[in-house]
Design brief:
The structure holds two protein chains of two kinds. By secondary structure, chain A is mainly β. Chain A contains no helices and one strand. Chain B is elongated and about 55 Å long. Chain B starts with a strand and ends with a strand. Classes of the chains: A mainly beta, B mainly beta.
Amino acid sequence: ARTQTSIFSFFSTP
Amino acid sequence: MIEAVLPQASLLKKIIEAIKELVSEANFDFSETGIRLQAMDKSHIALSFLHLRNDGFSEYRCDRSQTLGINLESFSKVLKCAANDDQVQIKATDKAESLSISFESTAKDRVSEFNVKLMDIDIDSVDVPDMDYQATVNMSSQEFARIVRDMMTIGEAITIDATKQGVKFSTSGDAGEGNILLRHRKTIDEEDGPSSTSVEINEPVSHSLALKFLANFAKAAPLADRVSINLIEDAPVMFEFKISDMGHIRFYLAPQIEE
């Protein structure tokens, strides 16, 4: 099954 | 003091329509160089970026950088009061509590003015590094919207496979499955027509994405004839719509991964 990732898994907060 | 004038309200209408389904409230950062917006949907799966350069406006003035928090549904409602070819002016004083939006008809005989309340919006922002994409698909934005619409009749997720041969969009669901292949054209010239597709590729790359977000991105199609889809393994897919000579809207979408 596929899992949805989040933007935060790839880009960090400043 | 902020003051920005666009010769046609239709452009601003299209911009707000393109992002208001994804984000209900957003901070518009005004600076000397133009306007920027970064916003995420509530689930933190899609990230929207808007950049409008100062030189794209017929008049632009920003004495000092200022962030204006705006409810996009309210903004959109007000913009519906403008005729498409009305000139639109947006204005805010320092520490303003509302954004003033006025419309002037082409004959200059009708002027309307509205105020939209500003709000403090606490949002999560992220740093997006410059990335070397493995593949860039450049295609007609109308074609993109059509493919998204067609795929949504079958499934909820879409797989985008970019290879040297072209780009393949596929989906599957309870009713069955389907795929659409757009073959790569070496040059996009008049002979091929504006509907042709190019794929610049370093390495084949494949991503699975939630279709409902692509349906939202497709709302930016009225802004640009072309969309570019930028893919890299293990990173969000970036969709870019250029806004004629003045900037762009970019959407980053976090992929679905196999567990």
